[in-house]
Protein backbone atom coordinates (compact mmCIF):
# COMPACT_ATOMS: atom_id res chain seq x y z
CA UNK A 1 0.00 0.00 0.00
CA UNK A 2 1.40 3.46 -0.87
CA UNK A 3 2.66 5.59 2.02
CA UNK A 4 1.23 9.12 2.01
CA UNK A 5 2.26 11.78 4.56
CA UNK A 6 1.48 15.52 4.59
CA UNK A 7 3.63 18.08 6.35
CA UNK A 8 0.58 19.18 8.34
CA UNK A 9 0.60 15.73 9.94
CA UNK A 10 4.13 16.16 11.34
CA UNK A 11 4.23 19.70 12.70
CA UNK A 12 5.94 18.45 15.86
CA UNK A 13 9.12 17.67 13.91
CA UNK A 14 9.84 21.37 13.27
CA UNK A 15 11.66 22.11 16.53
CA UNK A 16 14.82 24.14 16.06
CA UNK A 17 18.26 22.75 16.90
CA UNK A 18 21.40 24.65 17.89
CA UNK A 19 24.58 24.38 15.82
CA UNK A 20 27.93 26.08 16.25
CA UNK A 21 28.39 28.28 13.16
CA UNK A 22 31.51 30.45 12.87
CA UNK A 23 31.93 30.18 16.62
CA UNK A 24 28.37 31.28 17.39
CA UNK A 25 25.52 29.11 18.71
CA UNK A 26 22.92 29.44 15.95
CA UNK A 27 19.30 28.17 15.96
CA UNK A 28 18.65 26.03 12.90
CA UNK A 29 15.10 25.33 11.66
CA UNK A 30 14.50 21.63 12.11
CA UNK A 31 14.04 19.17 9.28
CA UNK A 32 10.61 17.75 8.56
CA UNK A 33 10.96 13.98 8.27
CA UNK A 34 8.22 12.40 6.17
CA UNK A 35 9.81 8.92 6.00
CA UNK A 36 12.69 7.72 8.14
CA UNK A 37 15.06 4.80 7.59
CA UNK A 38 17.88 3.25 9.61
CA UNK A 39 20.59 0.63 9.44
CA UNK A 40 17.91 -1.85 10.60
CA UNK A 41 15.69 -0.94 7.62
CA UNK A 42 18.27 -0.54 4.83
CA UNK A 43 15.74 -0.80 1.99
CA UNK A 44 13.14 1.80 2.92
CA UNK A 45 12.16 5.30 1.84
CA UNK A 46 13.76 8.43 3.24
CA UNK A 47 12.13 11.82 2.64
CA UNK A 48 13.29 14.90 4.53
CA UNK A 49 12.51 18.58 4.03
CA UNK A 50 15.15 21.06 5.15
CA UNK A 51 12.91 23.98 5.97
CA UNK A 52 15.48 26.74 5.73
CA UNK A 53 19.24 26.42 5.68
CA UNK A 54 21.39 29.10 7.31
CA UNK A 55 21.82 31.98 4.84
CA UNK A 56 25.32 31.86 3.41
CA UNK A 57 26.08 28.42 4.82
CA UNK A 58 28.65 26.43 2.83
CA UNK A 59 28.72 22.63 2.86
CA UNK A 60 31.81 20.92 1.47
CA UNK A 61 31.63 18.87 -1.72
CA UNK A 62 30.66 15.32 -0.76
CA UNK A 63 29.10 12.05 -1.91
CA UNK A 64 26.74 9.38 -0.57
CA UNK A 65 26.77 5.60 -0.93
CA UNK A 66 23.30 5.44 -2.51
CA UNK A 67 21.32 7.23 -5.22
CA UNK A 68 19.71 10.52 -4.14
CA UNK A 69 17.29 13.18 -5.35
CA UNK A 70 17.28 16.77 -4.12
CA UNK A 71 14.44 19.19 -4.89
CA UNK A 72 15.03 22.86 -4.13
CA UNK A 73 11.67 24.30 -3.10
CA UNK A 74 12.50 27.71 -1.64
CA UNK A 75 15.17 30.41 -1.58
CA UNK A 76 18.23 30.09 -3.78
CA UNK A 77 21.94 29.34 -3.81
CA UNK A 78 24.64 27.44 -5.66
CA UNK A 79 25.42 23.75 -6.12
CA UNK A 80 29.00 23.71 -7.24
CA UNK A 81 29.07 26.77 -9.47
CA UNK A 82 25.54 26.25 -10.77
CA UNK A 83 22.64 28.42 -9.62
CA UNK A 84 19.72 26.63 -7.98
CA UNK A 85 16.24 27.89 -7.12
CA UNK A 86 12.70 26.41 -7.13
CA UNK A 87 12.03 23.91 -8.57
CA UNK A 88 15.50 22.63 -9.37
CA UNK A 89 15.77 18.81 -9.27
CA UNK A 90 19.22 17.25 -8.80
CA UNK A 91 19.90 13.51 -9.12
CA UNK A 92 23.17 11.83 -8.16
CA UNK A 93 24.18 8.22 -8.50
CA UNK A 94 25.82 6.56 -5.53
CA UNK A 95 29.47 7.59 -5.05
CA UNK A 96 29.10 10.70 -7.23
CA UNK A 97 30.49 13.81 -5.51
CA UNK A 98 28.82 17.19 -5.85
CA UNK A 99 29.19 20.63 -4.30
CA UNK A 100 30.10 22.67 -2.47
CA UNK A 101 26.56 23.74 -1.60
CA UNK A 102 26.06 27.37 -0.63
CA UNK A 103 22.71 28.82 0.38
CA UNK A 104 22.01 32.44 -0.51
CA UNK A 105 23.48 34.92 1.97
CA UNK A 106 20.17 36.73 2.44
CA UNK A 107 17.33 34.21 2.02
CA UNK A 108 18.96 30.79 2.44
CA UNK A 109 17.13 27.89 0.80
CA UNK A 110 14.78 24.97 1.45
CA UNK A 111 15.14 21.54 -0.11
CA UNK A 112 13.86 17.96 -0.10
CA UNK A 113 16.19 14.97 0.08
CA UNK A 114 14.79 11.65 -1.18
CA UNK A 115 16.35 8.19 -1.06
CA UNK A 116 15.15 4.58 -1.25
CA UNK A 117 18.08 3.05 0.62
CA UNK A 118 19.87 3.71 3.87
CA UNK A 119 23.02 5.81 3.55
CA UNK A 120 25.81 5.90 6.09
CA UNK A 121 26.46 9.64 5.98
CA UNK A 122 28.01 12.26 3.74
CA UNK A 123 31.63 11.57 2.75
CA UNK A 124 33.18 15.03 2.53
CA UNK A 125 36.09 16.34 0.48
CA UNK A 126 39.00 16.57 0.57
CA UNK A 127 39.19 13.95 3.34
CA UNK A 128 37.15 11.34 1.43
CA UNK A 129 38.84 11.75 -1.96
CA UNK A 130 41.23 8.81 -1.55
CA UNK A 131 38.39 6.66 -0.21
CA UNK A 132 36.34 7.39 -3.34
CA UNK A 133 39.22 6.46 -5.62
CA UNK A 134 39.24 2.99 -4.04
CA UNK A 135 35.57 2.33 -4.90
CA UNK A 136 35.62 -0.13 -7.85
CA UNK A 137 33.62 0.70 -10.96
CA UNK A 138 31.48 3.32 -9.25
CA UNK A 139 30.45 4.96 -12.58
CA UNK A 140 29.64 8.48 -11.37
CA UNK A 141 26.81 10.45 -12.95
CA UNK A 142 24.60 13.36 -11.99
CA UNK A 143 22.08 15.61 -13.70
CA UNK A 144 20.11 18.70 -12.78
CA UNK A 145 17.10 20.48 -14.27
CA UNK A 146 14.93 23.38 -13.14
CA UNK A 147 11.26 22.47 -13.60
CA UNK A 148 8.71 25.04 -14.73
CA UNK A 149 5.09 24.00 -14.26
CA UNK A 150 2.57 25.12 -16.88
CA UNK A 151 -0.48 27.12 -15.87
CA UNK A 152 -3.29 24.97 -14.55
CA UNK A 153 -6.08 24.50 -17.06
CA UNK A 154 -9.14 22.27 -17.13
CA UNK A 155 -7.26 19.01 -17.53
CA UNK A 156 -4.06 17.13 -16.65
CA UNK A 157 -0.59 17.99 -17.97
CA UNK A 158 2.30 15.53 -17.60
CA UNK A 159 5.80 16.47 -18.76
CA UNK A 160 8.70 14.02 -19.12
CA UNK A 161 11.96 15.62 -17.91
CA UNK A 162 14.35 14.08 -20.44
CA UNK A 163 17.50 15.38 -18.72
CA UNK A 164 16.71 13.18 -15.70
CA UNK A 165 16.25 9.80 -17.34
CA UNK A 166 18.20 6.60 -17.98
CA UNK A 167 17.65 3.01 -19.11
CA UNK A 168 17.69 1.65 -15.54
CA UNK A 169 14.28 3.09 -14.58
CA UNK A 170 15.23 6.64 -13.65
CA UNK A 171 12.68 9.26 -14.67
CA UNK A 172 11.09 12.50 -13.48
CA UNK A 173 7.64 13.73 -14.51
CA UNK A 174 6.22 17.19 -13.81
CA UNK A 175 2.49 16.96 -13.17
CA UNK A 176 -0.09 19.76 -13.25
CA UNK A 177 -3.73 18.94 -12.52
CA UNK A 178 -6.86 21.06 -12.55
CA UNK A 179 -9.17 20.86 -9.50
CA UNK A 180 -10.93 17.52 -9.01
CA UNK A 181 -9.18 15.80 -11.93
CA UNK A 182 -7.69 12.32 -11.76
CA UNK A 183 -4.73 10.52 -13.33
CA UNK A 184 -2.24 7.75 -12.60
CA UNK A 185 1.50 7.98 -12.09
CA UNK A 186 3.72 5.84 -14.31
CA UNK A 187 4.32 2.17 -13.51
CA UNK A 188 6.95 1.98 -10.72
CA UNK A 189 8.01 -1.62 -11.44
CA UNK A 190 11.04 -0.70 -13.56
CA UNK A 191 12.91 1.09 -10.79
CA UNK A 192 13.85 1.04 -7.10
CA UNK A 193 10.90 3.00 -5.74
CA UNK A 194 8.86 6.04 -6.67
CA UNK A 195 8.05 9.30 -4.88
CA UNK A 196 5.19 11.70 -5.63
CA UNK A 197 5.87 15.11 -4.09
CA UNK A 198 2.94 17.55 -3.99
CA UNK A 199 4.43 21.06 -4.13
CA UNK A 200 1.28 23.16 -4.54
CA UNK A 201 -2.42 22.44 -4.08
CA UNK A 202 -3.45 19.10 -2.65
CA UNK A 203 -4.09 15.44 -3.46
CA UNK A 204 -6.86 13.18 -2.26
CA UNK A 205 -5.89 9.75 -0.93
CA UNK A 206 -8.31 7.29 0.66
CA UNK A 207 -10.91 10.02 0.96
CA UNK A 208 -8.62 12.46 2.81
CA UNK A 209 -7.23 15.70 1.42
CA UNK A 210 -3.47 16.05 1.83
CA UNK A 211 -2.28 19.61 1.27
CA UNK A 212 1.18 20.48 -0.02
CA UNK A 213 3.78 19.73 1.04
CA UNK A 214 2.83 16.04 0.82
CA UNK A 215 5.02 13.07 -0.05
CA UNK A 216 3.86 9.65 -1.28
CA UNK A 217 6.10 6.60 -1.69
CA UNK A 218 5.23 3.67 -3.94
CA UNK A 219 7.19 0.41 -3.90
CA UNK A 220 8.27 -1.17 -7.22
CA UNK A 221 5.93 -4.12 -6.59
CA UNK A 222 2.86 -1.90 -6.23
CA UNK A 223 0.44 -0.75 -8.89
CA UNK A 224 0.66 2.71 -10.43
CA UNK A 225 -0.31 5.37 -7.89
CA UNK A 226 -3.77 6.86 -8.51
CA UNK A 227 -3.69 10.64 -8.11
CA UNK A 228 -6.75 12.80 -7.45
CA UNK A 229 -6.34 16.58 -7.24
CA UNK A 230 -8.09 18.57 -4.53
CA UNK A 231 -10.15 21.74 -4.82
CA UNK A 232 -7.09 23.92 -5.55
CA UNK A 233 -5.64 21.60 -8.18
CA UNK A 234 -2.17 20.10 -7.90
CA UNK A 235 1.44 20.68 -8.94
CA UNK A 236 3.62 17.67 -8.21
CA UNK A 237 6.79 15.86 -9.18
CA UNK A 238 6.91 12.12 -9.81
CA UNK A 239 10.43 10.81 -9.22
CA UNK A 240 11.35 7.22 -10.03
CA UNK A 241 14.64 5.83 -8.73
CA UNK A 242 16.71 3.60 -11.04
CA UNK A 243 17.25 -0.08 -10.34
CA UNK A 244 20.22 -0.87 -8.11
CA UNK A 245 22.36 -3.10 -10.31
CA UNK A 246 25.62 -3.14 -12.20
CA UNK A 247 25.36 -0.38 -14.75
CA UNK A 248 26.97 -0.51 -18.16
CA UNK A 249 29.78 1.98 -18.72
CA UNK A 250 28.60 5.26 -20.16
CA UNK A 251 29.30 5.61 -23.86
CA UNK A 252 31.94 8.27 -24.42
CA UNK A 253 31.59 10.57 -27.39
CA UNK A 254 34.44 12.35 -29.15
CA UNK A 255 34.67 16.12 -29.25
CA UNK A 256 32.47 17.74 -31.88
CA UNK A 257 35.55 19.28 -33.50
CA UNK A 258 38.21 17.03 -35.07
CA UNK A 259 41.59 17.25 -33.35
CA UNK A 260 40.18 18.54 -30.08
CA UNK A 261 39.73 16.30 -27.07
CA UNK A 262 37.54 15.67 -24.07
CA UNK A 263 38.77 15.37 -20.52
CA UNK A 264 36.70 13.84 -17.73
CA UNK A 265 36.66 14.22 -13.96
CA UNK A 266 37.42 10.77 -12.53
CA UNK A 267 35.39 11.63 -9.42
CA UNK A 268 32.02 12.90 -10.72
CA UNK A 269 32.19 12.34 -14.53
CA UNK A 270 31.93 16.01 -15.58
CA UNK A 271 33.52 16.33 -19.04
CA UNK A 272 35.58 19.25 -20.32
CA UNK A 273 35.33 19.52 -24.11
CA UNK A 274 38.16 21.52 -25.67
CA UNK A 275 35.88 22.43 -28.59
CA UNK A 276 33.36 24.10 -26.25
CA UNK A 277 35.64 25.48 -23.57
CA UNK A 278 34.02 27.02 -20.49
CA UNK A 279 33.12 30.59 -21.51
CA UNK A 280 31.29 31.17 -18.22
CA UNK A 281 34.67 30.60 -16.49
CA UNK A 282 36.59 32.79 -18.93
CA UNK A 283 37.89 29.81 -20.96
CA UNK A 284 37.07 30.36 -24.66
CA UNK A 285 35.92 27.60 -27.03
CA UNK A 286 38.91 25.81 -28.56
CA UNK A 287 41.09 26.13 -25.43
CA UNK A 288 43.39 23.12 -25.12
CA UNK A 289 43.43 21.32 -21.80
CA UNK A 290 47.07 22.22 -21.18
CA UNK A 291 46.12 25.89 -21.51
CA UNK A 292 43.35 25.74 -18.90
CA UNK A 293 44.62 27.49 -15.74
CA UNK A 294 45.75 25.16 -12.95
CA UNK A 295 43.47 27.11 -10.62
CA UNK A 296 40.36 25.98 -12.54
CA UNK A 297 38.14 23.41 -10.79
CA UNK A 298 35.24 21.13 -11.69
CA UNK A 299 31.91 23.04 -11.62
CA UNK A 300 30.05 20.01 -10.23
CA UNK A 301 32.30 18.66 -7.46
CA UNK A 302 35.14 21.22 -7.15
CA UNK A 303 37.85 18.68 -8.06
CA UNK A 304 41.11 20.28 -9.15
CA UNK A 305 42.58 20.03 -12.63
CA UNK A 306 44.88 17.21 -11.48
CA UNK A 307 41.79 15.03 -10.85
CA UNK A 308 40.86 14.89 -14.55
CA UNK A 309 41.90 12.23 -17.05
CA UNK A 310 41.64 11.83 -20.82
CA UNK A 311 38.35 10.35 -22.02
CA UNK A 312 38.77 7.19 -24.09
CA UNK A 313 36.98 7.46 -27.46
Briefly summarize what is shown.
With 313 residues, this protein is mostly beta strands.
Give the N-to-C terminal Cα separation.
Answer: 47 Å
Overall mean pLDDT stands at: 88
Low-confidence stretches: none
The helix tally amounts to: 1
Largest sheet: number of strands, sense, barrel closure: 8 strands, antiparallel
* DSSP strand count: 25
The chain-level structural class is mainly beta
Question: If you compute it from the alpha carbons, what radius of gyration comes out, rounded to the nearest whole angstrom?
Answer: 20 Å
Describe the global form.
globular
What order do the helices and strands follow? EEEEEEEEEEEEEEHEEEEEEEEEEE
Helix content: under 10%
Strand content: 35-45%
Question: How would you describe this protein?
Answer:
β19 (194-205) and β20 form a beta hairpin. The strands form six sheets. Strands 1, 16, 17, 18, 19, 20, 21 and 22 form an eight-stranded antiparallel sheet that branches. A six-stranded antiparallel sheet has the order 4-5-13-8-11-15, with no helix packed on it. Helix content is 2%, strand content 42%. It has 313 residues and is mainly β. It has one helix spanning 129-133; strands at residues 3-6, 17-21, 24-28, 31-35, 43-50, 58-59, 62-63, 68-75, 77-79, 82-84, 88-92, 101-103, 109-117, 123-124, 142-146, 156-160, 171-177, 182-184, 194-205, 208-211, 214-218, 226-240, 262-265, 271-273, 308-310.
Amino acid sequence: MPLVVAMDDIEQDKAKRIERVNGIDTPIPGNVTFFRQSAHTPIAPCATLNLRDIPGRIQKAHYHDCDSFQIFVGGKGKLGRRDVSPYCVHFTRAYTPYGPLQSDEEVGWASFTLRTRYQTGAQRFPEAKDKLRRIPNHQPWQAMKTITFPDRCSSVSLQDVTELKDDQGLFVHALTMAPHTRTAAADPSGGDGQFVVALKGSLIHEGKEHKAMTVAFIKPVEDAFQISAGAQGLEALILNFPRVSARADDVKSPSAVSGLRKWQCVLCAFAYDEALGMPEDGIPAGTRWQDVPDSWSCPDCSATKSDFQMVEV
